[in-house]
């Protein structure tokens, strides 16, 4: 058992925690409390008149077909983004682990895209697949595929999923590489001596030992798909065409900052927060049971 750390000054621990507590208070608890407060109010667009309406905003939001459609869009978008980002990152990490020469350079190139802001990542993909001047759009049309994500809903959804997954692959890649480095090479070598093929070694040794990392990334990627992809959607499609890519977080913005419906927007943000908390709790309650910590 490691010895307990004792600070000579009793105030020092609180001073060390103060910056983080202040950031959490200002950027999480305070906005969350304001959303809860505004969700039970109804006010005009100019903020001149406010009326307490209780749960009326929640009832109104949950009865709107457009909100149910946004829920369905969010589910499709989040599942596809998290799945693609995790699977491709794992594949790239396994491939990078086999490289002998230039391993550090290759890994650095793989991590760089994570430094790109979400809005910039969205614009990059929009330029590449823009139906008017995009290089890949030209190649798709030359191959006989009518590509136009600005008018075609499924194509727009595919484009924002690809951009969001590409942005997150680098983050997942970093953790998978760290997880692979922590696996004892003797286990893999012993399995190879026993005649286990490369595929069998991956599914019976490597992937089970990466279960804690995979579970962690599953939670992180789910939260990322729900919240941090706003900039990508805003830059690429703006929620269109025909609200095909209007996720829950984008609908909160659209109703609150564009349509100036603050009560409904606040109620939607509270519902979104509850959904993410419940989904995370579900993952820890049921998915974590299948995770083995070696």
TrEMBL record:
Xref: InterPro entries: MetI-like, MetI-like_sf, UgpAE/MalFG_permease
CDD domains, per the entry: TM_PBP2
UniProt KW keywords: Cell inner membrane, Cell membrane, Membrane, Transmembrane, Transmembrane helix, Transport
Transmembrane portions of the chain: 12-32, 75-96, 108-129, 156-180, 201-220, 266-287
Membrane topology, as annotated: Multi-pass membrane protein
Residues forming coiled coils: none
Keyword S-adenosyl-L-methionine annotated: no
Function: Part of the ABC transporter complex UgpBAEC involved in sn-glycerol-3-phosphate (G3P) import. Probably responsible for the translocation of the substrate across the membrane.
Subunit structure: The complex is composed of two ATP-binding proteins (UgpC), two transmembrane proteins (UgpA and UgpE) and a solute-binding protein (UgpB).
Name of the molecule in the record: sn-glycerol-3-phosphate transport system permease protein UgpA
Gene designation per UniProt: ugpA
């Amino acid at each position: 058992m490691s010895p307990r750390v004792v600070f000579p000054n009793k105030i020092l621990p609180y001073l060390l925690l103060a910056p983080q507590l202040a950031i959490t208070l200002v950027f999480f608890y305070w906005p969350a409390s304001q959303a809860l407060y505004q969700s039970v109010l109804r006010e005009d667009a100019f903020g001149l008149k406010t009326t307490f309406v209780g749960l009326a905003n929640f009832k109104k939001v949950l009865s709107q077909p457009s909100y149910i459609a946004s829920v369905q869009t969010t589910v499709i978008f989040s599942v596809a983004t998290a799945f693609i980002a995790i699977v491709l990152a794992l594949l790239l990490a396994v491939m990078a682990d086999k490289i002998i020469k230039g391993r550090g350079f290759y890994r650095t190139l793989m991590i760089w895209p994570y430094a790109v802001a979400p809005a910039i990542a969205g614009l990059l993909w929009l330029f590449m697949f823009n139906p008017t001047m995009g290089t890949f759009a030209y190649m798709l049309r030359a191959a006989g595929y009518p590509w136009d994500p600005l008018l075609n809903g499924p194509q727009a959804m595919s484009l924002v999923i690809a951009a969001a997954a590409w942005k997150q692959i680098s983050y997942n890649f970093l953790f998978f590489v760290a997880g692979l480095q922590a696996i004892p090479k003797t286990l893999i070598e012993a399995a190879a001596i026993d005649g286990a093929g490369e595929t069998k070694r991956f599914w019976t040794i490597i992937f089970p030992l990466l279960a804690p990392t995979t579970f962690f990334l599953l939670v992180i990627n789910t939260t990322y798909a729900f919240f941090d992809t706003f900039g990508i959607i805003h830059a690429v499609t703006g929620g269109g065409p025909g609200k095909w890519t209007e996720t829950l977080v984008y609908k909160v913005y659209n109703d609150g900052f564009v349509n100036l419906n603050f009560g409904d927007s606040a109620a939607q943000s509270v519902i979104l927060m509850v959904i993410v908390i419940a989904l995370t709790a579900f993952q820890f309650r049921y998915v974590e049971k299948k995770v083995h910590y070696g």
